[in-house]
Amino acid sequence: MTAEEDAEVLADEQLEEMKEAQKVHDFMTSNNCGRRAGVSGAPVTADQIDSWQGPPSYEKSPEEVERVKAAISNAQSLQVLFGHLDGNSLDSVIGAMFLRHAEEGESIIVQGDDGDYFYIVDSGTFDILVQRQADAPPEHVFTAASQTSFGELALMYNVPRAASVICSQAGGLWALERECFRMMLITAENSRVKEYALFLQQIQELKV
Questions:
Q1: pTM of the model
Q2: DSSP code string of 65-96
Q3: Are 35 and 41 in contact (CB under 8 A)?
Q4: CB-CB contact of 82 with 74 (8 Å)
Q5: Pick from 177, 173, 176, 178: which is nearest to 102 by CA?
Q6: Which tens digits make up the pLDDT trace of 131-182?
Q7: In the predicted model, is pLDDT for residue 116 greater than 70?
Q8: How far apart are CA 127 and CA 165, in angstroms?
Q9: Sign of the CA dihedral 154, 159, 163, 166?
Q10: Percentages helix, strand, coil for the chain, rounded to the nearest 5?
């Protein structure tokens, strides 16, 4: 691969990363983007941010902490969400996650429901199913395995779940509650997202 081709690939990767950052920016700045009625449709207010006491902390073994860190390091989507955090902030995010055990056949997410948790797969497998038409059976679109994640879009955009998730092999999920997820994305420590937002404002083709 030539230097020019390398540069083009790098530019494409940066473009995709910036688009992901735009999603976070939209969530941070919009009071009505994709809103629906109900609790999950309410925007985060300045008073909520000021009064937030910070995330909870669930005890984990050193090995469990390292597994979550590895998932965040190895998954591009998680890097966009959490990769900009410093050591202490990342530790807070990991501390706020708790391990949910899932049995084969257990329903984790139901398409159309409000978003409640964001998940990182620790072990097992989870089938992602989408029902595109009311009179058609759900379609299998993806199987999530260790170090993959799902559930963030419904929390970011305050829209109904776009897919159902069913455990296909018993395992565990690291779960982060909606309020923690949203608050951690919009606190002042998320400087990288803010920098992206300012940069993206100057790039017309990325504004959608």
A1: 0.69
A2: HHHHHHHHHH-HHHHHHHTT--HHHHHHHHHT
A3: yes
A4: no
A5: 173
A6: 999 899 999 999 999 999 999 887 677 789 999 999 999 999 999 998 888 7
A7: yes
A8: 6
A9: positive
A10: 45, 20, 35
